[in-house]
Write a structure and sequence with these properties.
271 residues, mainly beta, nine-stranded antiparallel sheet, 2 helices, 7% helix
């Protein structure tokens, strides 16, 4: 297999021995195995694809020759998303801690591309974090990513999704700061619309449920929603509105507001 045992093998792109490889290189071993991708200190380290002579391949993230997470493709074209314990060499039967079949693919296993083609393709088609260069689907912990649709996210990730605390922003849609779950606004947070209006409250799967909306003019009101419409939905409208003055009076007395006052309803999302 491609590795230290075959250190005399040279990379095809620069004719450098395996032990000295740094950066992106292509190596074809006499056994028939190949590796195309990033190296550090003579080891697979970063993004790369390992091709077995059997026709199977693994494309993903490596650390010191050990696969971390990625996609395994068998000769028939079946594709599996795998996450590993991260401590075992690619050819020492690494233990997958999670396995998910992602889809059928026609045409069999991929052919062997050049290093430049692999890296260029990844840059064009696979979003990566700006801080570490890790593919978005593999992110764990804190990272900054720019999505293809123009939004930016800085914050926590779990299993390749925005989860935890973070800040999401889009020039024409607005900015959200707060709690995320499975890629959605979920929990307590603040959403600021491009016109300066702000909603602070509780979200359920990107749908506001209750909180306070403050207009750019400074006027504010407590609002309640049915929780079925996204913050981006132009048809989003409160089911109940309590102006700040009434809300403060209600909180200081034993009475309650039985129905919303007849005022013009602020409508987050209606631009």
């Amino acid at each position: 297999y491609v590795g230290p045992a075959n250190a005399a093998v040279l990379c095809e792109c620069h004719r450098v021995p395996i032990d000295d490889l740094q950066g992106g290189h292509t190596v074809h071993d006499p056994s028939g195995d190949s590796y195309v991708g990033e190296w550090l200190g003579g080891m697979f380290h970063g993004h790369g694809t390992y091709f077995w002579s059997s026709g199977s391949s693994f494309q993903g993230l490596f650390r010191s020759d050990c696969p971390q997470a990625g996609v395994f493709v068998v000769p028939s074209g079946e594709r599996w998303e795998l996450h590993f314990d991260g401590a075992t060499h690619i050819n020492d039967d690494p233990r997958a801690v999670s396995v998910r079949r992602i889809r059928e693919q026609q045409g069999g296993a991929p052919t062997h591309p050049t290093t430049a083609a692999v890296m260029a393709s990844a840059a064009e088609t696979v979003p990566v974090c700006h801080c570490h260069g890790i593919e978005m689907s593999l992110l764990e912990g804190s990272h900054h990513v720019t999505h293809k649709q123009g939004s930016h996210y800085s914050g926590e990730w779990r299993q390749g999704q925005m989860s935890g605390n973070g800040r999401w922003t889009h020039a024409s849609l607005g900015t959200y700061s707060g709690s995320f779950a499975q890629g959605l606004f979920h929990g307590e947070g603040w959403f600021v619309f491009p016109d300066g209006d702000c909603f602070q409250g509780v979200f359920s799967r990107s749908c506001p449920t209750m909180g306070v909306i403050t207009k750019a003019s400074g006027a504010s009101a407590e609002v309640h929603f049915d929780g079925t419409r996204s913050i981006f939905d132009p048809a989003l409208a409160p089911t109940m509105i309590v102006p700040a003055s009434i809300s403060s009076q209600a909180s200081s007395s034993s009475g309650s507001v039985s129905s919303p006052p007849r005022i013009s309803a602020p409508r987050p999302g209606a631009r």
